[in-house]
Amino acid sequence: MDFSLLAFYVFAGVAALAGLGVVTVRNAVHAALLLVLTFFSVACIWLLAEAEFLAIALVLVYVGAVMVLFLFVVMMLDIKPGTGREGVARHLPVAIAIAIVMALEMLALIGVQRVEQVFGSTDPAAAAGGNTKWLGMALFTDYLYPFEIAAVILTVAIIAAIMLTLRRRANTKHQDPARQVMVRREDRVRIVKMDAESKGGEQ
């Protein structure tokens, strides 16, 4: 058994155990951290299969954006007045343990020199000079039109989401920067002159 196959079994085992922990732990923050570890372990398996683009996309999109945002939302919903940063210290040991496992996985990947090709030497990605280069050439030549259509659809979806979010709601206050800039001193402060009055028994 070579080192690459051993690394595959280790990463697959970590991903399976972390995925099982996601559905079994009761703490939502711990479940989110375990899901981050699951995604990271799967990305390491993609790297072992020489699918660098899929591994990088998985880390950047899911681990670096979606799950981090989800973790922030979960922690914000768990905020209680007056507790300060008590919740952060409570989840810190689990976060440190997961970070150590991810670091060990990266060190194991550095030790892997070459992954054996399962389907022989006729891999188009290897012939094109790498997985990322081959995918880029195929995406911007053979599949350029579907790629542009997907970009337009995503742009329309973003605009629609912004329009739905910025709609006027009743009983809400909105700022008008143009009116704030044009305000005058007389509109903010009014000086009223009143005669002094004495209370009963005072001169």
Automatic annotation (TrEMBL):
Catalytic activity: a quinone + NADH + 5 H(+)(in) = a quinol + NAD(+) + 4 H(+)(out)
EC identifiers of the protein: 7.1.1.-
Molecular function via GO: oxidoreductase activity
TM annotation in the entry: 6-25, 32-49, 55-79, 91-112, 143-166
Topology with respect to the bilayer: Multi-pass membrane protein
Keywords: Cell membrane, Membrane, NAD, Oxidoreductase, Quinone, Transmembrane, Transmembrane helix
InterPro entries named in the record: NADH_UbQ/plastoQ_OxRdtase_su6, Nuo/plastoQ_OxRdtase_6_NuoJ
Location(s) in or outside the cell: Cell membrane
Enzyme class: translocase
Described purpose of this protein according to its UniProt entry: NDH-1 shuttles electrons from NADH, via FMN and iron-sulfur (Fe-S) centers, to quinones in the respiratory chain. Couples the redox reaction to proton translocation (for every two electrons transferred, four hydrogen ions are translocated across the cytoplasmic membrane), and thus conserves the redox energy in a proton gradient.
Family the UniProt entry places it in: Belongs to the complex I subunit 6 family.
Subunit relationships: Composed of 13 different subunits. Subunits NuoA, H, J, K, L, M, N constitute the membrane sector of the complex.
Protein name: NADH-quinone oxidoreductase subunit J
